[in-house]
Design goal:
The structure is a homodimer of 220-residue chains.
Chain A: E1 4-11, E2 14-21, H1 22-40, E3 45-46, H2 48-55, H3 59-67, E4 73-74, E5 78-80, H4 81-91, E6 98-103, H5 107-113, E7 123-130, E8 139-140, E9 143-147, H6 151-158, E10 162-165, H7 169-181, E11 186-189, E12 202-205, H8 208-216
Parallel strand pairs in A: 6-7, 6-10, 7-9, 10-11, 11-12
Antiparallel strand pairs in A: 1-2, 3-5, 4-5, 8-9
Chain lengths: 220, 220
């Protein structure tokens, strides 16, 4: 939502600063996911045409998006799935694994703590927090639920920069303030409320109703 | 993802057909959610400036988006929150309540069945389905879990057009085919896999990793 940002890429041996629109950055994870699925299917090579058909995006758009970051394919021979996957993982900084804290262990927090979709995609949950005395100390998946009162020192000490927020809406801003104080730089917010953070912190929202309303627009 | 669609709006007493980009449609639910929060705060009037500050979108963009659908505010006096809310609900077709089926009652399905964020936003869950004999017949929230084998006749008879899909990835396409056969027109897919549907059916994806990767792009 912050307009454009500066992306530094190594092209032709020299560093070039480019402004890459957020909307383009937002499509890269879709491309990466599709490439990883193709790889699981045993595929080696793909094209912007095929990627576009799988994603409902035009081939021209995909070529244009990727061209912002370099030359990843040859005319006529398409993209090496392995090479393009590696490049996208580097661009998105998921060639490493990010430790993630989950704050709020209700239904959504439970689902996240046991979600199988993180592995090999750059993230692993390492900590769970809740304020409910009945939940603190219990085991969820591989983890023991920690007391939310300890969230600042524990996150600060661990160096965790990514958090998923699944607390009730009326607690979301208060908990967010603690996460920011602890050094968290990226927050995925499941609470159905907008939260305020400093410009150095990124927030993404998961609210099923936003997605449902985008679709009912097209229904009679 | 389907480019542009035809939107019919009543402006100045005559019908005008306009093509509204998907990206604009996608922002309307954000505006609506923010207006509903302002209303809860007891507010009566807002401006594109204030909406923009809350959402990290420029005031000019908000004015441009809304102008695609009509004239909703007066220069200098801003928008009536009540009036703009009503208009956006009509545009997004959430001035009625849509019945929703949840298919796949694992952690995510449980969370959805008990999610408090649907009320007053145009949706209510009316049916749950699963294939697990241990879950079929059990109670989750207000509902009894139904056998997935009955999904086509039950959805067809009820007229449900909206479904949330929270089955494992390897079952997602198979179940999607049944939902389409049953007449579902909008699918919110939580399975970390792309599904294929006829052009008359809309799909939105909820995959936390896509959102996390959009943010790690900006992290060092």
């Amino acid at each position: 939502m912050c307009g454009k940002v500066c992306h530094t890429s190594l092209i032709g041996g020299f560093m070039e600063d480019k402004m890459v629109p957020n909307i383009v950055v937002g499509r890269l994870p879709l491309y990466l996911r599709t490439l990883q699925l193709m790889n699981q299917e045993g595929r080696r090579v793909t094209s912007s045409q095929e990627l576009g058909e799988r994603l409902g995006i035009s081939a021209a758009q995909i070529r244009k998006d990727l061209s912002q970051f370099g030359e990843f394919g040859k005319q006529g021979t398409g993209y090496s799935i392995e090479f393009l996957t590696k490049q996208l993982r580097e661009i998105l900084h998921v060639d490493k694994v990010w430790d993630v804290a989950v704050v709020g262990i209700g239904d959504v927090g439970h689902a996240l703590a046991r979600y199988q979709g993180f592995s090999n995609r750059g993230f692993r949950i390492v900590m769970l927090f809740d304020s409910d005395q009945h939940k603190i100390g219990t085991q969820v998946g591989e983890f023991t639920v920690q007391n939310i009162n300890n969230v600042v020192p524990m996150i600060r000490q661990s160096g965790v920069q990514v958090a998923m927020l699944s607390v009730p809406a009326d607690q979301a801003q208060h908990v967010t303030n603690s996460l920011v104080e602890a050094g968290v730089k990226s927050i995925l917010n499941y609470a159905p409320i907008n939260i305020t953070v400093p410009v150095s912190v990124h927030v993404q929202y998961i609210d099923p109703v936003l997605h449902l309303q985008r679709m009912t627009y097209y229904l009679e």
